[in-house]
Amino acid sequence: MPRPRRHTPTHADGRPLKITFGEMREMGLRGVLVYCHCGHHVALRAERWPDEIRLSDIEPLFVCAACGSRGADVRPDFESGRPPEFAGRKREAAN
Questions:
Q1: How big is the chain by its Cα radius of gyration, in Å?
Q2: Number of CB atoms found within 10 A of residue 81's CB
Q3: Could you write out the three-class secondary structure of 65-80?
Q4: Lateral strand order in the sheet of 41-45
Q5: Fewest CB atoms less than 10 Å from the CB: which of 25, 27, 70, 92?
Q6: Is residue 58 a contact partner of residue 74, using CB atoms and an 8 Å limit?
Q7: What is the rounded distance in angstroms from the CA atom of residue 18 to the CA atom of residue 75?
C-alpha cells in the first residue's frame, strides 16, 4: 500500500517554506550557509535578519559572486552554531 504524501507548505513560486530566523535562534544556531547552484557557497552570521523572516524568504535575493546567478539555497549552519554541550560530539564519535 502506498504511503500517503505529506503536504509541504510552499511559497507562491513553488519553493518550500523554511523555518524562521527566530526558530533557528531558539535552537541555538547563529549562522547560515548560502549555496549557489554552481557550487559556490558562503557562511554568514544571521543577526542581520529579523526573527519573523524565513530562510526561504531571502533565497531569491542572493546574487552569486562567482557566477552572477540570482537565487540560492539557504540553510542553518549546524556545525558552527552548535550549542557548547554538542560541540565535541562529532570528534568523540570518530574516536
A1: 16
A2: 19
A3: CCCCCECCEEEECCCC
A4: 41-45, 31-35, 73-76
A5: 92
A6: yes
A7: 9
For the purposes of burial, counting CB atoms within 10 Å of the CB of 1, is it exposed (0-12), middle (13-18) or buried (19 or more)? exposed
SS3 70: strand
Residue 74 contacts residue 56 (beta carbons within 8 Å) = yes
Contact present, 62 and 70 (Cβ < 8 Å): yes
C-alpha cell at 46: 544571521
The residue assigned the cell 544571521 is 46
CA dihedral 57, 51, 33, 55 (to 10 degrees): -20
Q: Mean pLDDT in each 10-residue stretch from start to end of the chain (95 residues)?
A: 71 80 94 95 95 95 95 91 51 43
Q: Residue 76 burial by CB count (10 A; 0-12/13-18/19+): exposed, middle or buried?
A: buried
CA 19, distance to chain mean position in Å, is: 8
